[in-house]
Amino acid sequence: MPRTLAEHLRRVPDPRLDRTKRHALGDVLTVATCAILCGYHSYYDMEDFCTDYFGWLRQWLELA
């Protein structure tokens, strides 16, 4: 049974083509969810969130 947000979101089926996958969909959804909850709303804001909190995010996600 999943216990964390990331574990739940890793169960979402990924409809993307293999050649377009740079990051796991569950990780992308987790970053997007956390960013939105922290007040980051655009794609550019989410990129800033990931940059600002990269060390923290890497504790739970498999980010490149």
The major beta sheet can be summarized as: none
In sequence order, what are the helices and strands, one letter per element?
A: HHHH
- How does the helix and strand content classify structurally? mainly alpha
Arithmetic mean of pLDDT: 91
Q: What's the number of helices?
A: 4
Unreliable stretches covering 5 or more consecutive residues: none
Question: Radius of gyration over alpha carbons?
Answer: 12 Å
Total beta-strand segments: 0
Characterize the overall form. globular
State the end-to-end distance: 26 Å
Helix content: 40-55%
Describe this structure as you would to a colleague:
This protein is an all-alpha fold. The chain has four helices and no strands. Helix 2 (25-37) packs across helix 3 (43-52). It is globular, with a radius of gyration of 12 Å. 17% of the residues are buried. The mean pLDDT is 91.
In short:
With 64 residues, the chain is mostly helical. The protein has helices at residues 5-9, 25-37, 43-52, 54-57. Helices cover 50% and strands 0% of the residues.
Describe the secondary-structure layout.
Elements: H1 5-9, H2 25-37, H3 43-52, H4 54-57
Keywords:
64 residues, globular, single chain, mainly alpha
